[in-house]
């Protein structure tokens, strides 16, 4: 790290009024890693927001090509960090190096996908209604609409994806692609990782000739709230707990000027196993299910926390296989001490709750930082009564299996679930005739419905939705993964009877950007 | 009116536990029109929301063609109401028959435009990323996204457009097009008008075979709050005052499950007159400006309430022409007694505020229900200090003119303005080189920027934006006029590895609906 280690990133400078006293902690042994950070002052939060606003005034006028090149350059600079990035991230989060290598690829892939999106140009949503001077009873004026960035965006790093949902993660990329500047609040769980990535972004800013305050980063506790309340911040993206998300959401809505606050929060991601699939391959499904809820130590927003099927001998065998596989599951290091404590509290709460019982546990932890996998079984009454304990996300390597009497009970029970990021149906061809009503129900409940896979893989692509009805997110109309994520930070503006000289290229006659536009009700590249 | 006059419209039935005691009032003489309405009970609000929810479960699965036909049928049924509709609306609102005839055309045109939008199919935002089983290091699954309705929507009628922003107005049509059911809260200022239009919608529901609870309407005070707090309501559209809008917005955000609440509220719609335009045609601009702020008795959300130019002899002449024209302006009937009272309070507040003076008044009212037009002049200090009185919308036939020292002062002053629905630049060709920075500034402030026209004409088309930064609306990402209005009530859902048998037609291989879709990053109709 440089001599500036631990200072805020503001307007291309490193700034810190406070001494560096916040310690980066090793996730494995809870000892300091040696990296220290300064708590941002209120004045520094203000400086960061001001810098973002001043940069926005220029950055919003960059061309789509300039922004695409900038995102590509960030990807290169992140690659240039080399293995140091994964090593530091592994220290701070306890995640395995191979996972962090994959996550780095996801970050750079995501940056390049958004660059493609920018070059494609349909994110502008360009619409042109040309003048109809002869129309009766009234002539029509010339109207041209496109989408522009809402302004400076506050982004909150998630603990569980120190790269892909953090400093240069999905929300940051979506905001930068939209033409918005960013103030990023570094997560306390991986500040040194954030520092490295921020340095890469700063280099990309310099290399690309982008305004220096386009990206800013602050460290510290409570500064997130200050940031959300800052009048120059115009939107925010968050990934984290329901409690944390709603606290910030409420601040955002209760400002003198409310702002869009997209929080991705809580989901138990039900998996429904259909009878014929269980008959055909129950044991394999059980193994894959256990692998999915243990993947990344169960620290995925899309971890399948609820497994439901209809009572049958095949389902009993499936549960037996879940138990057997869970018992072989190895303990893994959790992201930090707080996360492990929350996990253990969540497990204890279920152990003490009527209708739930722990039916299998994985191997015992060998390190103080490891979590033991657990499998619970719950009565169907817990589902049918809408018991909030069932719907409370326990972040970590556990899941709950429920057998229901019949299909009607299954549908009744699922109807009681709150909004979800994902819902999964494990089905064979012969199950499909029974799956239609189930699919309709789950479509109302979730942002993504998947068949014969597990929700823990979240592809970054145009068609992905990582969102869903509350409490999965604070606004079901958004996604935080995939190119659709840009929509959260765009607003439409309409120019009426505006001279060609003054119009942006995207709306000019002759379509100089060669993008698809809706012209007089017809999608065209002309 | 039928014998059921005054009861709630719930699930295709007329229901009222309370006696009809709320009077419809004639806007001209403040006497009862004779139509009486029943205050909805809390139980009736619940019945309406339940009916909307049950209908949504079916209505959401109607095809785009079925919904398009339904909207067309509503237009026909509204036309079938004949001149009775405008006569009743004229009684209740004091608006001239010819205006209400035009507004009826706007309503039916809007319904048919949304039917076109549905048939075009791009509102689905269909995106397909096909599986890449050979991709390294990980295969890609098949992902298909489209947009679906968020659920039952609460819609609030606006006082100033008893047809176009009311029962079958922009918000209702956008929600119905999105596949959402509606509970409409009738505005107390035109309940008999609302009753007629609701009857037309009910006929269209019957004729089109649409589920009976797809549209519901309730009467009464405070029921709007009950509606927004009802757990089955999933979004809301509102047009009205800042106070009313924010009260409901706060309820919507503080529910256990917050919901999107799109409120179109407050805007002073600045008009900037450029030097060369004034030199060339100052007197004509003055006449048109006065006509615009008096149109519809100044009761448009887009009324130009602020006129700004740079000091010059031509600007002085322009102000003189504004004064002369204002003095000839005739008084018109306001929508209701409350609106007139608010207008007079707004005028009184300006008369008592330092920095403002009334420089012209129109002809004196002859009826108790008429408003007198007024023109104010304000010091530039009022603009530069961001005086909230200047930014407070005074709903009615008035405007404020300000002369500023120079272009820099103009830009500084405009920077102090809050968000606007519209901003207007009156410019000649030779003004355009100076207009670029102004345009950039106004683009940040407004949802629509227009040249050489007046904002009071709001075309209903694909490219229109009737929205803008707070407090113009509660969310700058939406529009309540034009086909873009549908976006507010749609959310994306993604199907992963889903069988062709179960996929909706919009996402099937072979594109059976022949719509434009984004397939593997390419917009195509294949």
Question: What does this entry look like structurally?
Answer:
2 copies of one chain form a homodimer. Chain A has 526 residues and is α/β, with parallel strands linked by helices. Chain A contains 15 helices and 23 strands. Chain A has 2 domains: 10-265 and 478-488, Aldehyde Dehydrogenase, Chain A, domain 1 (3-Layer(aba) Sandwich); 270-451, Aldehyde Dehydrogenase, Chain A, domain 2. The first copy, chain A, has helices spanning 42-59, 64-80, 83-93, 97-120, 170-177, 191-208, 223-229, 242-254, 275-294, 313-328, 337-351, 380-384, 388-391, 407-415, 432-445; strands spanning 8-10, 13-15, 20-25, 32-38, 127-129, 143-149, 153-156, 182-185, 215-218, 235-239, 261-264, 270-273, 306-310, 332-333, 356-361, 370-371, 374-378, 398-404, 420-426, 446-451, 490-496, 517-519, 522-524. In chain A, the strands form 6 sheets. A 7-stranded mixed beta sheet of chain A has the order 15-17-18-13-12-19-20, with helices on both faces. The longest helix of chain A is centred in the first third of the chain and has 24 residues, at 97-120. Chains A and B meet through helix 4, strand 5, strand 6, helix 8 and helix 15 of A and helix 4, strand 5, strand 6, helix 8 and helix 15 of B. Strand 21 (490-496) of chain A pairs parallel with strand 20 (446-451) of chain B.
Compute the CA-based radius of gyration of chain A: 25 Å
Biggest interface pair, counts: A-B, 80 and 78 residues
Tell me the β content of chain A.
15-25%
Query: What is the name of the CATH superfamily of the largest domain in chain A?
Result: Aldehyde Dehydrogenase, Chain A, domain 1
Shape of chain A: globular
Q: At the first level of CATH, what is the class of the largest domain in chain A?
A: Alpha Beta
Number of helices of chain A: 15
């Amino acid at each position: 790290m440089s001599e500036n280690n631990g200072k805020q990133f503001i307007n291309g400078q490193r700034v810190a009024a406070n001494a560096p006293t916040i310690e980066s902690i090793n996730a494995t042994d809870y000892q300091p890693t040696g990296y220290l950070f300064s708590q941002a002052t209120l004045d520094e939060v203000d400086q960061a927001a001001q810098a973002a606003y001043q940069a926005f005034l220029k950055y919003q006028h960059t061309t789509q090509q300039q922004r695409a090149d900038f995102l590509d350059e960030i990807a290169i600079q992140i690659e240039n960090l080399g293995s140091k990035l994964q090593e530091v991230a592994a220290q701070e989060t306890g995640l395995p190096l191979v996972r962090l290598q994959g996550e780095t690829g996801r970050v750079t892939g995501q940056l390049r996908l958004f660059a493609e999106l920018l070059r494609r140009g349909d994110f502008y949503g360009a619409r042109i209604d040309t003048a109809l001077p002869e129309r009766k009873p009234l002539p029509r004026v010339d109207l041209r609409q496109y989408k522009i960035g809402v302004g400076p965006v506050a982004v909150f790093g998630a603990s569980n994806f120190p790269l892909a949902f953090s400093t240069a993660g999905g929300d940051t990329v979506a905001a930068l692609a939209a033409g918005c500047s960013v103030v990023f609040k570094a997560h306390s769980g991986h500040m040194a990782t954030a520092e490295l990535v921020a340095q890469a972004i700063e280099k990309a800013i310099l290399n690309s000739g982008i305004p220096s305050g386009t990206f800013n980063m602050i460290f510290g506790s409570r500064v997130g709230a200050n940031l959300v309340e800052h009048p120059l911040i115009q939107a925010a993206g968050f990934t984290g707990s329901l409690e944390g998300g709603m606290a910030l959401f409420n601040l955002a809505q209760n400002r003198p000027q409310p702002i869009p606050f997209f929080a991705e929060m809580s989901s138990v991601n039900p998996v429904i196993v259909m009878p014929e699939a269980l008959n055909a391959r129950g044991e394999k499904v059980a193994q894959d299910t256990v692998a999915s809820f243990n993947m990344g130590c169960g620290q995925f927003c899309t971890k399948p926390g609820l497994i439901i099927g209809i009572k049958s001998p095949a389902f009993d065998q499936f549960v037996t296989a879940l138990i057997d596989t869970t018992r072989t599951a190895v303990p893994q290091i959790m992201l930090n001490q707080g996360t492990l404590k929350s996990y253990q509290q969540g497990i204890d709460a279920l152990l003490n709750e009527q209708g739930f019982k722990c039916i299998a546990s994985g191997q015992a932890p060998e390190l103080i930082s490891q979590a033991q996998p657990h499998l619970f079984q719950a009565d169907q009454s817990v589902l049918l009564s809408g018991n909030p304990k069932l719907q409370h996300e326990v972040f970590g390597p556990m899941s709950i299996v429920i057998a229901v009497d019949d299909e009607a009970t299954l549908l009744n029970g699922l109807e009681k679930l709150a909004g979800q990021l994902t819902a999964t149906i494990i089905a064979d061809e012969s199950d499909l005739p029974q799956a239609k009503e189930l699919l309709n129900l789950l479509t109302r409940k979730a942002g993504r419905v998947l068949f014969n896979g597990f929700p823990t893989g979240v592809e970054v692509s145009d068609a992905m939705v990582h969102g869903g009805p509350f409490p999965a997110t604070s606004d079901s109309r958004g996604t935080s993964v995939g190119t659709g994520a840009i929509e959260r930070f765009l607003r439409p503006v309409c120019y009426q009877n505006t001279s060609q000289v003054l119009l942006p290229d995207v709306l000019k006659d002759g379509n100089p950007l060669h993008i698809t536009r809706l012209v007089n009700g017809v999608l065209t590249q002309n």
